[in-house]
């Protein structure tokens, strides 16, 4: 069955997932929905998976649910049935540390604590997202909360883990003769589901995408969510350029659109009051009803497939994909309609704006030193054998 608009074809199924035994993974926003199903399949294929979530109780409940799959005696399902058992034994799930992605300082603490107990990180999936029902500021920095949660915190998390990711790549090279460390950023379809002003790239790049955030203009709901997802695409593009060829640095980063998913993020909307003005209008109610129907949306287990493709599929390494934008499932796509998504000048402006915000919020000029020096670090610590000097 084909789910969603556009007649997506599948270039990937769970049958193509590789043996992940001995690998360590982090999935942010993994207490429910796509994040939880992504974590489940990683564990069912042998990985040691860490759930990076804000709410400790929800993370623990998700870990128990995933553990029930690991303990199941049922045959493994290639359709992603949560009740099926593991394909490769030895996987584990951990929810021993919470992280509030609305506060970038919490990301620093999370990374420091994780590295104390783990000497490798093979897969990092930046999945967490939020659709704020009203204008809300993050804790640090005090900018729009979706931007802080899904973009700035993930950027800092990648920075904090970059040395560990690259040291893991070197370990893989020693163990297997090749390295394959992956970062996956979960975005959305930035070529559609956007308001009309996205058709004017200059207006979006200078005014809506960055200036409105810097000036703390009140954006919320789908507008805030989609703006953040454009940032995800732009950030991935810039990071891939800085990292260079994965054959040299061992780390590959790609961004994905999971598809239209029926998850909690679109199921409900809270309101500051009960006035008529605060209630969703007819258009929003129709959109939410469509998102929650099987006519245009797919269930979370299928919604995890594209993240799993980018994180695990052998094809991604074989074709040396870096900085690609994947639509369901395993289909390469460039943001043709939303031209800002492939605008290098806007990507550079976003990078500079984001690094300033992270330095100020953490009070540390070296807050993103690993990303700032990624070129030098890569050259110094290449995973490829170095030629002998005469």
TrEMBL record:
**Has the keyword ATP-binding been applied to this entry?**
no
Q: Which GO terms describe its molecular function?
A: oxidoreductase activity
Tell me its family.
Belongs to the short-chain dehydrogenases/reductases (SDR) family.
Q: What is this protein called?
A: NAD(P)-binding protein
Which interval of the chain is the signal sequence? none
Q: Where is this region: Disordered?
A: 58-94
Give start-end positions of Basic and acidic residues composition bias. 71-84
Keyword entries, A-Z: Oxidoreductase
Gene3D superfamilies tied to this protein: NAD(P)-binding Rossmann-like Domain
Q: Which Pfam families match?
A: adh_short
């Amino acid at each position: 069955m084909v789910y969603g608009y556009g007649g997506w074809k599948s270039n990937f199924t769970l049958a193509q997932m590789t043996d992940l035994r001995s690998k360590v993974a982090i999935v942010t926003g993994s207490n429910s929905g796509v994040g939880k199903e992504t974590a489940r399949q990683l564990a069912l294929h042998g990985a040691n998976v860490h759930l990076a979530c804000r709410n400790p109780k929800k993370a623990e409940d998700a870990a128990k649910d995933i553990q029930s799959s690991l303990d199941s005696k049922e045959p493994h399902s290639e359709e992603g049935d949560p009740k099926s058992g593991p394909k490769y034994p030895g996987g584990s799930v951990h929810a021993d540390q919470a992280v509030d992605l609305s506060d970038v300082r919490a990301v620093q603490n999370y990374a420091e604590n994780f590295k104390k107990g783990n000497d490798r990180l093979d897969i990092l999936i930046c999945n967490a997202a939020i659709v704020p029902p009203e204008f809300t500021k993050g804790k640090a920095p005090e900018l729009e909360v979706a931007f802080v949660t899904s973009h700035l915190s993930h950027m800092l998390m990648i920075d904090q883990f970059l040395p560990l990711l690259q040291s893991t790549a070197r370990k893989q090279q020693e163990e297997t003769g090749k390295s394959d460390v992956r970062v996956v950023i979960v975005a959305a379809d930035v070529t559609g589901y956007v308001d009309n002003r996205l058709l004017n790239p200059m207006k979006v790049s200078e005014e809506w995408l960055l200036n409105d955030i810097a000036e703390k203009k009140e954006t919320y709901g789908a507008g805030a969510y989609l703006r953040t997802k454009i940032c995800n695409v732009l950030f991935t593009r810039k990071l891939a350029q800085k990292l260079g060829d994965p054959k040299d640095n061992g780390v590959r980063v790609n961004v994905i659109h999971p598809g239209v998913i029926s998850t909690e993020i679109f199921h409900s909307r809270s309101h500051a009051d009960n006035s008529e003005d605060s209630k969703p209008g007819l258009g929003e109610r129709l959109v939410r009803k469509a998102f929650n129907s099987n006519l245009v949306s797919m269930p979370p287990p299928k919604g995890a497939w594209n993240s799993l493709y980018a994180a695990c599929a052998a094809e991604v390494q074989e074709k040396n994909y870096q900085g690609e934008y994947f639509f369901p499932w395993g289909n390469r796509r460039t943001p043709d309609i939303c031209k800002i998504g492939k605008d290098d000048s806007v990507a550079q402006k976003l990078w500079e704006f984001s690094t300033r915000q992270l330095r100020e919020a953490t009070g540390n000029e070296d807050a993103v030193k690993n990303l700032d020096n990624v070129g030098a670090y890569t050259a110094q610590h290449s995973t490829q054998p170095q030629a002998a000097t005469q």
